[in-house]
Amino acid sequence: MKKALVCGAGGFIGGHLVNRLKSEGYWVRGVDIKENEYDNNNADEFILGDLRDPSVAADVVTSDLDEIYQLAADMGGAGFVFTGDNDASIMHNSVLCNLNILEEAKHKGVKRIFYSSSACMYPEYNQLDPDNPKCSEDSAYPAAPDSEYGWEKLFSERLYLTYQRNHGIEARIARFHNIFGPQGTWEGGREKAPAAVCRKVSMAEDGGFIEIWGDGKQTRSFLIVDECVEGIRRLMQSDFSGPVNIGSEEMISLNDFARMVIDISGKNITIKNIAGPTGVRGRNSDNRLIQEKLGWAPSTPLRVGVEKTYNWITEQIQKKVNVEEAVEV
Ligand code: NAD
Ligand code: GDD
């Protein structure tokens, strides 16, 4: 039986990945600074611990592991990453997790490690035109990410590649493009646009309005988490190190995305564009390399993932309302 460690198992993608590895017959150890809030706590062993602490990394990385999946990071959407207020902690926290895990993997002789990088590492100068952003893997340099979060991801990609070159640890690096879906953060300030828009539409009254940050013409592509996990597993099983994009090529403007969610809700809602943190003007995955190296690329239509996510977020809102009503009684 293969043994895997999932760092960040209390989080969104980590939780889904634990379930996937379990369904494939793995023995799984999860580690996170927090418990998984939803029903994704299916690791054989879950350790509550802070990976910034080298002794925690020493405890969770054991020599019997076949694979490590490193997803622990200080993570959030535009409201968290692009305000500038969290830059020092993002760089400090995430880089320490990566340094500690890699050093322990070297000491314990773990052979293969997955690292979750981000499309945020691509240069801003290639993402100024909302209709023609460039995010091919070979466009990373000269580096000019628009956020410190992106700079940390780029540095850590390089860190993983140094451990591969100097210490023989096989690195597998993916650049995720805005992953969304059930069990993702949907409130509290760290939520990304797909969850935020679903929440706003679900909570809006029929005939009301929702607020969308920016002019709504900025573009993104959004990938449902099941496809992300499929891509992680395929990359991990391949002999290709990456870095490689894992994302959707179905680019959409934010206002059109909001219109899609409104249509799914069946309500009559108008869009009000307001000032807010917007990040790059346009971003889309480029899937030529993943198709070439893995013979696979995500294919689920955006609307299919959004329907699932809208329904799940609506359930979460209803659960909260039920709890609040029960407390009042
Ligand atoms: P998430 O916030 O749900 O998961 C990250 C987890 O890491 C959290 O549960 C958090 O508690 C944990 N963590 C943070 N600091 C830690 C520490 N010091 N010790 C132990 N655990 C710690 O985010 P996610 O969406 O599941 O993202 C997973 C990974 O993928 C992250 O590295 C993120 O940067 C990367 N990524 C995600 C997206 C996306 O759209 N979701 C896009 C690009 C990259
Ligand atoms: N979060 C959020 N909430 N974004 C909104 C909202 C809202 O209510 N309304 C409009 N937006 C706009 C943002 O201004 C931004 O232009 C766009 O929607 C996308 O925002 P996010 O989904 O929050 O982030 P992102 O795509 O800019 O970056 C995310 O994806 C990267 C990978 O592609 C972040 O999660 C990064 O951390 C991640 O690495």
From TrEMBL:
Gene3D superfamilies: NAD(P)-binding Rossmann-like Domain, UDP-galactose 4-epimerase, domain 1
Molecular-function annotations in GO: NAD+ binding; UDP-glucuronate decarboxylase activity
UniProt-listed Pfam families: Epimerase
Tagged with keyword Transferase: no
Source superkingdom: Bacteria
Keywords: Decarboxylase, Lyase, NAD
BP-aspect Gene Ontology terms: D-xylose metabolic process
Domain NAD-dependent epimerase/dehydratase as annotated: residue spans: 4-247
Cofactor: NAD(+)
Cellular component GO terms held in the UniProt record: cytoplasm
Protein name, entry field: NAD-dependent epimerase/dehydratase
Species whose genome carries this gene: Fibrisoma limi BUZ 3
